[in-house]
Task: inverse folding
């Protein structure tokens, strides 16, 4: 049982391919390889956050300054960032690309992840954030590119859910 | 010291730089002194002005970024000091006007700085290399000029009276400000 190194690389390469040059992250288990890849990439600015909502401000600043960015965070971090998403990214029309590790879904063995898992999609829907799941490696490149394209067109947050089938090898 | 007088004292330094403010009195007063295309007023999302400034500072190291913030906003995102200190952008000065209250709610709604919480000390303990607390226009002018010249991450706390502008309204829609600011940053791209 471990985090998929191969699929983490596929996700990372997809982000690079659509021009992402700044990643703000709050590490969690499923994101460790992605964070390491960013850390070892001289072309990527990696910002390790104290709390996820900071990343909304950092991505907004990067966007206004002409640099493409994304946030890597757990769904609980997404829940902790809701005001920043609403009161900055949505209010100011920021194309915020959110890659959210989707803990607490089917197959989840940790009780503490389950409540957040149960409300993640409902909160995304309530916020009118378009989202798709990434659960198979062959979807990743297209969906990341399309998410970025939509975010830049509607100037709003767009989310991709990093699902268990993609990130975790049982 | 009145915040508007403090802003007036450093306005010549601000006018040519990238300035990101929090919401409320500070943006209204800065706007009243003269809007510039490099000024962005974050009219909500309390606490995130410094994060937004950090994003600009990291994305564009050639620019000098000034964040104008308030005690109430900073207290909502104290972790920002640790993130600023971690990356130490030499092109960022974080100026916090500390009036010890949530002024737009009312002067009786004090923040924790009224009971002794020291934002400059918190920033220093978080690892910010240059910090100072000032209480007069002349002290601010000197500390601000020194921080800009040092090219070193700085957190400056300016103690001000809990007095705001007569009007908070600004003849600039927030999206107009946002796109004008983005265009200004794009034009200055090297």
Result:
């Amino acid at each position: 049982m471990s985090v998929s190194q191969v699929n983490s690389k596929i996700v990372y390469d997809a982000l690079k391919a659509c021009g992402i040059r700044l990643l703000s992250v709050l590490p969690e288990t499923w994101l460790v390889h992605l964070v390491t890849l960013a850390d070892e990439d001289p072309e990527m600015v990696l910002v390790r956050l104290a709390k996820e909502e900071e990343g909304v401000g950092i991505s907004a600043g990067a966007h206004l300054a002409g640099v493409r960015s994304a946030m890597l965070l757990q769904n609980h971090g997404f829940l902790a960032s809701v005001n920043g998403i609403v009161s900055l990214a949505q209010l100011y029309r920021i194309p915020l690309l959110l890659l959210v590790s989707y803990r607490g879904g089917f197959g989840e063995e940790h009780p503490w992840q389950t409540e957040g898992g149960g409300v993640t999609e409902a909160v995304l829907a309530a916020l009118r954030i378009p989202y798709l799941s990434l659960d198979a490696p062959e979807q990743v490149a297209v969906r990341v590119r399309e998410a970025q394209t939509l975010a830049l067109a509607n100037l709003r947050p767009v989310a991709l859910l990093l699902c268990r089938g993609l990130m975790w090898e049982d | 010291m009145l915040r508007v007088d403090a802003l007036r004292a450093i306005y010549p330094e601000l006018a040519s730089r990238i300035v990101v403010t929090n919401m409320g009195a500070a943006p209204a007063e800065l706007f009243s002194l003269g809007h510039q295309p490099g000024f962005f007023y974050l009219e909500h999302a309390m606490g995130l002005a410094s994060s937004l400034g950090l994003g600009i500072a990291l994305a564009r190291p050639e620019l000098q970024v000034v964040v104008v913030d308030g005690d109430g906003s900073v207290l909502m995102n104290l972790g920002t000091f640790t993130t600023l200190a971690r990356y130490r952008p030499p092109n960022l000065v974080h100026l916090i006007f500390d009036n010890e209250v949530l002024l737009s709610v009312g002067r009786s709604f004090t923040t924790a700085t009224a009971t002794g919480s020291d934002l400059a000390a918190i920033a220093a303990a978080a690892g910010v290399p240059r910090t100072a607390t000032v209480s007069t226009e002349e002290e601010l002018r000197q500390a601000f000029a020194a921080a800009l010249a040092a090219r070193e991450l700085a957190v400056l706390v300016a103690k001000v009276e809990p007095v705001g502008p007569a009007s908070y309204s600004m003849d600039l829609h927030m999206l107009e400000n946002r796109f004008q600011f983005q265009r200004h940053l794009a034009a200055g791209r090297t």
Helices of chain B lie at 3-15, 25-33, 49-59, 71-75, 79-87, 119-126, 137-150, 174-187. DSSP finds eight helices and six strands in chain B. The interface with chain A takes residues 20, 40, 42-45, 47-60, 63, 77, 79-80, 82-83, 86-87, 174-175, 178, 181-182, 185-186, 189 of chain B (CB under 8 Å). Residues 25 and 165 of chain B are 6 Å apart (CA to CA).
